[in-house]
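Case study 2.
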Amino acid sequence: MDAHAIEDLFTRKDGSYLFARWGRPIVPVVFGVDDATLSVVKGALEAVVTLAQHKMAETDPELGANLMVFFFREWDELRHLPNLDRLVPDLLPLVDRLEAADANQYRIFRFDENGAIKACFVFLRMDAHLSDVPAETLALSQAVQSILLWSDRAFQDASPLARAGDGVVLRPEIGDLIRAGYDPVMPMVAHDPSHALRLFARIRPTQ
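Prediction:
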């Protein structure tokens, strides 16, 4: 992965470059799954957080939980979740747009005063497509896409995951990029594309 490819992963549709990582420990909570799937989702999150050399915690002093993952069958269910509209601004118009687009997933990030990630809300409508995806694959994909603020175009043409035997793993270059993004000497937020060059300089060559 060269510097241009890295830059593309954080360049939005409007042409602006924006990188952000979590500025606080991650406290996940998962809704709408059984205990077995819950274990898979939390295991994937822990693996990606460990890869980034970031931290998890039992509670967030401001929000309680700051990474919320919702599994459901229809977008309409979100309209009836108590207090969700307090956490997600303009929830009802958002649900209307997602229904109209027949979307099956959506992520919302919230940021602190410095621009670092302080919360993420992941919504997964388990339509026929997502229901066919193995829980391990879906969980790892969502964990990767929640650990950094990727471009709204990132991974449209290539998944961050790769097949390994009967399962899937994180592509090594994406793992190296996540690790580089959480390097303590790197900024938590960046708007200048030259940031991609700094990330590139910290990626270990894949053997």
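The radius of gyration is 17 Å.
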